[in-house]
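## tool: complex_structure
## caller: assistant
## args:
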Amino acid sequence: MKNPLKVLSAFAATAAMALSLSACGGGSSQASSDTITYWASDQGNSLDDTAAKLKPSLDRFTEKTGVKVQLEVISWTDLYNRILTAVTSGDGPDVLNIGNTWAVTLQETGAFEPVEGELLEAVGGKDRFLKTSWSTGGAEGKTPTSVPLYGLAYNMYYNTKMFKEAGIEKAPTTWDEFVADAKKLTKDTNGDGKPDQWGFTAAGASVSANSHQAFVRGLQNGGTLFDAEGKPTFDSDPQVEGVKQFVDLMATHKVMSPSDAELSQGSQKVDNVINGKAAMMFDQSPLKNFAARDFKDWGVAPIPMMTAGATGDAGTQSHVAGINLSVFKNSDNKANAIKLAAFLTSDEEQIALNKAYSSLPVVTTASSDAAFQTEEVKAKNDALANHSLPMPLIAKEGQMETLTGTAIKNLFAKAATGTVSEDDIRAALKDANNQMAAAQ
Amino acid sequence: MSHSALDSGPAAAGSAPAVDPEPGQPKAATAPPTRKRRRSFLPYGLILPAAILELLIHIGPMLLGIWIAFISLNQLNLTNWLNAPFVGLQNFVNGLNPESTIGQAFFSTVGRTLVYTILVVGFSWVLGMAGAVFLSSNFKGRALLRTFFLVPYALPAYVGTIAWAFMFNQRDGAVNQILVDTFHLFGDERPFWLLGENSFGAMIVVNVWQLWPFAFLMLMAALQNVPTDVYEAAAIDGASLWQQFRTITLPMVRPANGVLLMVMSLWTFNQFNIPFVLFGASSPKEATLISPLIYQNSFGSWNFGLGGAMSVLLLIALFIASVFYIRMVLPKGADND
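## result:
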């Protein structure tokens, strides 16, 4: 009798396993028709902060439409891979936020609803939106698959107290003035013969932030990351010159702490400015961090250009930064998903949300609200509307960011541990260029 | 039981004495096959759940990975990946071409990973062996030390590595606080541990820290099976401690050693967690190992075909090495048993 019992228990175990597995496969959480799922990017000081600031808007949406929203705020480090998994499995949220520089790459997957017909009508047509922000929705000449949600742009933020101590009255406008001021601000305050206060700070190990600078500095010097035929030109002379200017802040001018080569989070450089360890930084939206730390000694100015008053490509100060919103094509609840897209881009919610997250409204009518008339917002608005270009609108944008950003990250690492020559910079960019060309 | 119930009755009862030996005979002839059948099914029944799960969790994805190596899978066809175009060996050609940047990166990374594996396994084994021999003699506080040595192995791998990342931080990390601020080494210059050439060494330190308790545990268990009288006899014959170690300890723990070195080598060669936590998605050039390189190709640049091809090459290399190693080491180990 022992053996049959054993056999029986083995069968029971198998059946239990099989059942639990089938439960795993079939039990995916499909939202019921009056509930939609929404993946939001982390726009606040933390995931909880983002959710708390989003909640009043979503409550108003539920009140207005009767549709409940299941919200999940996803950190920036996870968002791209989460979207990738959702795209591959076809099992994703109904509505989601994306970094606008990913828009073309994700458009190519075909996983998102094109912004035309019902969706385009629901968000009120493209003319409502800021032209630069709208241009990030997808590849040129193709129907976009995302609509702008929050607008951002790079500005230079500085510690006014440190400026005053160094006798600097006005923020620099040209690159040369910027380097000169940064040198004045780099000091040895404790007398050990080594500087401990720096003119400039950046997250040298942040791949995406580095790639933004490769883009902007290249344009300011007359270069582009791709030529007219779409071939990568990362190692062209103006691009090398642009990247050199950025890396030289640490390597040659020594106005940037070697420790910055290890910073991978943008918030770490914001801390440096707040703590008085560094005086200037380029950032898209540090106000929420300033407010959280009750830091008031800050000023804002446009990103320095090669010549004052430069226009066109040479006048680029930022890429068109921001967050876009997409509707998942596989959504079972598309009508309600479209309603949420329309609601979040409405004038009232644009004002409420962008105010909460210190970002810029992407619809022109909301920009006139009193909340967006501060000096900081005006500077950001000017950069976004008049001095920014979208990152290259190509399917392999993600790869371009990874390759150029990593090359600069490695150059900073080299500068921190030794010296960096122009040849090193050219070789690193050539390497990235070859990899980009091989992948195309 | 049912048989006797059916047969109950006068006729059956009357013939009972004559039939009795009969049922005994067929019983003797047929019962063993029945038991045999049951027995032969039982092992299959027992491994069936494991086999199904193994198929679903390991074999299935592995076969899928091999398939991906032969197709061109990128963001254009990710949603419809079953219909991605078949490209034959193109991904392998791209990955293996020593003229190309990708091929160069692949080969230099394989070489670096081999060196890394040898160093990590070597250091871990030496430390593990030293710890095991040391703790095999009786002294006060032995149990405490044993527990203490196992702490890195008991900690979640991510937690340990994150703590190391903080400690290795150039500006505020504990390593530089101790080496530079307290002991004034490196001419008071704070070295970078997670950038440039030092990053390779830092990664080895973290991996050895995490791996050596495993070697220690396995070798300690193996040492406990070595009879003490062999050592006593050797000592009476005048063998030194080193001679005892070389001629008694090492041969006696050889079977355990064989398995231990193989498992540790496979784990180390495939190491992903430590570089990923220490350096993020892209490791410094000097410290890129093969698994992070595959990750970078697959998820950094969405070139899943190339990532798949590199994985397949890695799989084949490790498979051949394992088979060769098992054939070389384990039968001898079994004999020694």
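## assistant note: DSSP finds 18 helices and eleven strands in chain A. Residues 7-31 of chain A have pLDDT under 50 and may be disordered. Handing back to user.
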